[in-house]
Amino acid sequence: MSSTLKQSKxxxxxxxxxQRLIHTRAELVKCQKELNKYKNDYYYHMIDELKVENNQLKxxxxxxxxAHESQCAQYEKQEKEIKRMKQKASAATPQLSVHEExxxxxxx
Length: 108
Known about the structure:
This protein is mainly α. Helix content is 94%, strand content 0%. The termini are far apart.
């Protein structure tokens, strides 16, 4: 007998299930109305606009970072080229001065 009591306590009647269903539907409608209220709220729209703007700024930031990296690489390449040219020029300068000295000695 105790097992049938437990079953009757745990099982809901069809009327109780209908009542729960009605209550759940009412809660759903209430939540939907509240959600629509927030969606129509100025600040809610502002949040959406800020999210869109934030995503756009993130994309722009990525582009700028890539451009910056490219510019840095190009700058380093040019710095190396300048250094190489300076070394080449400084190596050529002593040869020129020696050549000039020999020509000035010949001239007078």
